[in-house]
Design a protein that fits this description.
7 helices, 18 strands, single chain, alpha/beta, 364 residues, six-stranded parallel β-sheet
């Protein structure tokens, strides 16, 4: 994925930020075309030859290009997006293009063509992510965006829950989440379960920021903290949530019929891994008490194992010299309150622990 400058600078906040005028947008388009030629052009092109001269004759296979970044802050994206999109699409029709705005600005909506992507960013309170678990259900139909996909390009739980639900970006110490906590991993995980349930809509997801140099930084929370001493590297609770989702990712989402109860406090999604012949059932419990779960598989399974991410309380987090406060651990079904019969009727009963993110792997 490549992002190209779209004629708007975020160094000045708000609608009055500096934008290229419409009659000068050809300058920005040419700059983007030159950048793509540098990345993708063969060595007979001007910029492709420059790339080769710098030691990389092979072109880069750019598949996705985002036009701008957080352009909903500007009043000018309604003319900048179509100008750049049309010019780039004509030159590189096989690339999938990403709009950095859709409906965030109260004064306009961006029309995104079918086959392209909307990049949305969310720095929110934990309850926002849980409340919007089903946001992507029927999103294309609900918003009349047939064929448009979504990229969650930046996200994190950035502030504890407040009555107003409004994030204070001055980062007051009593509200701000400086390091990803267990509550962050659970809430973000619930939201990403909603994305995993809708693979026809949801294309990408990326926690942000990814890296924090402990010697100097200007934004928190971050997924991975580090300095020159490797023993100081901290993999956060949010990192481990991402790690679990990435390591237990199926090829297809499976239908799940709930015969008792509904989502909240339990949230779940099931996928199948065709290569490993396994079903992954991700289950998150947001309640401060265990919740009974009964799973009836439509076929017999041969084995089951699980991994759990939890902590002493919702505010548990990893930090220097205490990097393992919130990490994935194997579930010990031998000593757990669990009943399962893999070789008979495919049933599985378990008390899902309080405040936990779990991945159950059923071997078929």
């Amino acid at each position: 994925m490549l992002a190209v400058y779209a004629g708007f600078s975020l160094d000045v906040y708000g609608q009055s930020g500096a934008s290229y005028p419409e009659d000068q947008m050809h300058v920005i388009l040419q700059e983007a075309l030159d950048e793509l030629e540098f990345c993708m052009g063969n060595t007979s092109t001007y910029w492709g030859a420059r790339r080769a001269a710098l030691g990389h004759p092979e072109p880069f296979p750019i598949k996705y290009v985002e036009i701008g970044n957080e352009d909903w802050f500007s009043s000018t994206y309604p003319y900048r997006w179509p100008y750049l999109y049309n010019g780039l699409k004509e030159a590189y029709p096989d690339i999938q293009y990403i709009s950095s705005a859709y409906d965030e600005n109260e004064y306009y909506n961006i029309s995104i063509p079918a086959g392209e992507v909307w990049d949305t960013h969310h720095y929110e309170e934990p309850s926002y992510f849980i409340r919007n678990f089903d946001f992507y259900d029927n999103w294309q139909e609900r918003t009349n965006n047939s064929g448009v996909e979504v990229s969650l390009g930046e996200y994190s739980a950035i502030q504890i829950d407040t009555p107003s639900g409004i994030v204070n970006y001055s980062f007051p110490a009593d509200l701000h989440i400086f390091y990803p906590r267990l509550v962050s991993a659970l809430a973000e995980g619930v939201y990403l379960l909603g994305m995993e349930r809708n693979p026809d809509v949801c294309k990408f997801a990326s926690f942000a920021p990814s890296l924090q140099d402990l010697n100097w930084y200007n934004w928190t929370p971050d997924m991975i903290a580090f300095d020159a001493d490797p023993s100081h590297t901290v993999l956060s609770a949010s990192y481990w949530q991402q790690w679990l989702f990435a390591h237990y990712r199926g090829h297809e989402t499976l239908p799940v019929t709930n015969t008792e109860g509904d989502f909240n406090p339990l949230f779940w999604v099931a996928t199948i891994d065709n290569e490993k012949n396994a079903v992954y059932l991700k289950v998150i419990n947001t309640l401060n008490a265990s919740v009974p779960l009964t799973v009836n598989m439509p076929q017999k399974y041969q084995s089951v194992n699980g991994t759990i991410l939890t902590g002493a309380d919702l505010n548990s987090y990893n930090y220097i010299y205490n990097q393992t406060e919130v990490i994935p651990k194997p579930i010990n079904f031998t000593n757990a309150p669990v009943t399962y019969s893999p070789s008979s009727n495919g049933s599985f009963q378990w008390e899902v622990p309080r405040y936990s993110l779990n991945v159950l792997q059923f071997g078929l």
